[in-house]
Amino acid sequence: MASVSVTSVRSPIVAGNWKMFLDRRGAITLAQGIVSQVTDNNNVQLVLCPPSVYLDAVGNVIGITQAKPFGERVALGAQNMNAAANGAFTGEVAASMLRDVGCRYVIVGHSERRTLMGETDQVVAAKTLAAFAAGLVPIVCVGELLADRESGKTEEVVSAQVIGSLAGVSQANLETIVIAYEPVWAIGTGKVATPEQAQEVHRFIRNLLGKLSSNETAAKVRIQYGGSVKPDNAGSLAAQPDIDGALVGGASLKADDFLLIVKAFQS
Ligand code: PEP
Fold it and tell me: Domain 13-264 class?
């Protein structure tokens, strides 16, 4: 089967996953350091994903107000959500609440949640659908373990995750979704996939999306790479035709490093 054309214009998207790091002051300072240096001619969508208790504070730095509920060039994202609309789910946060504090994006299915919290593709799919229903754009994470790669099962594992995590998503929503390909063995380990390894899986995912929907839709989907992205490897990843941005963990905690990664994706 012919592979999906990548001629469609996809604006790059670079998201910082701050995980469970920083305190309130640190989150505000980091956001200020990023926002103050973003230039208007930057075509990259930036997304800051602080711990949920600091969403409001970071939203203020981004300039989210009642009149302007979402950041433009710099948007707010959450690291997780519950699929339920509301209810007796102690400690959980609903998509509508994230939207209420100005989030435009939400990360779902991060490998740390899949591994540490036992999130299955079914759970991720429910979150994906609930995110769309609340008006959020989900950043859906997929990626193989080292053992999967070493036993030649990368495509099998990634394809099951993509199909399972996107179950029930409409064609219209699929066009706007963000997928983050994050090989688990590269997250927080300093072992980055080579640009060729990453491109191969990104191309595979795009072709799979083409089969699940249409080539036109697949050509519009932004696929981020995540896994030890740093200023010194971002350029070679950004040069790959199917890599449309990055989901950055460790390096997103330093404004200068994060901005250098953003710059690498700037056209
Ligand atoms: C992540 O947490 O999604 C991630 C990619 O982390 P790091 O950049 O630190 O590998």
Answer: alpha beta
Counting Cα atoms < 13 Å in the Cβ hemisphere of 134 gives 29
- Side chain identity at residue 196, one-letter code: E
* R_g of the chain computed on alpha carbons: 17
pLDDT tens figures, 67-120: 888 878 999 999 999 999 999 999 999 999 999 999 999 999 999 999 999 999
* pTM of the shown model: 0.96
Residue spans of the domains in the chain: they are 13-264
C-beta of 248 in contact with ligand 1 (< 6 A): yes
Query: Catalytic residues, which ones?
Result: 110, 182
Residues 71, 263, 190, 137, CA torsion sign: positive
What is the CA(110)–ligand 1 centre distance, in A? 10
First to last CA, the chain: 30
